[in-house]
Amino acid sequence: MAKQQYWLMKSEPSECSIDDLAAAKKQTVPWFGVRNYQARNYMRDQMQVGDGVLFYHSSCPEPGIVGLATVSSTAYPDETQFDKKSHYYDEKSTREEPRWMLVDVTLDRKTRLLSLPELREAPELADMIILKKGNRLSITPVTAAEWKAVLKRLG
DNA sequence: GCCAACGTTGGC
DNA sequence: GCCAACGTTGGC
């Protein structure tokens, strides 16, 4: 068993909020719609069942961490890439060679909102990738120390 | 709605 | 392989 890893995963609440995750069957959702190679590579190559996930709401009135989750599957193809009616359809992807992979994410627990301004104030979190200027990556690795500091602040 | 920052595309 | 143009992200 490899060492536990931690991630921050952004989701737009209008697309899939923490409440949507809580209401989902088995409180689990496939993390569909990622169309960025770096984020895909994290899911495909590095994520393991049991990894910790900070669930983050982006592009909304109150951006921030809103819950804790767990990676609950290894990587498999994102079905939406094959669906012509989907916003995430990719005509260059085939079933033989799918371009986009995803993992399942299962809710651990909802938390209070740990807001973006609050994250910025925390000295232990100063190096979080998500807080760096210009960062747009929807999935970023989180260090064990950052994970611990976030948990401490969530109480 | 604005805009900075970044990723992708495509012409050469 | 370069790089300009374009599209997207995401906070404000």
Automatic annotation (TrEMBL):
<protein>
    <submittedName>
        <fullName>EVE domain-containing protein</fullName>
    </submittedName>
</protein>
<dbReference type="InterPro" id="IPR047197">
    <property type="entry name" value="THYN1-like_EVE"/>
</dbReference>
<feature type="domain" description="EVE">
    <location>
        <begin position="5"/>
        <end position="152"/>
    </location>
</feature>
<dbReference type="Pfam" id="PF01878">
    <property type="entry name" value="EVE"/>
</dbReference>
<dbReference type="InterPro" id="IPR052181">
    <property type="entry name" value="5hmC_binding"/>
</dbReference>
<dbReference type="InterPro" id="IPR002740">
    <property type="entry name" value="EVE_domain"/>
</dbReference>
<dbReference type="InterPro" id="IPR015947">
    <property type="entry name" value="PUA-like_sf"/>
</dbReference>
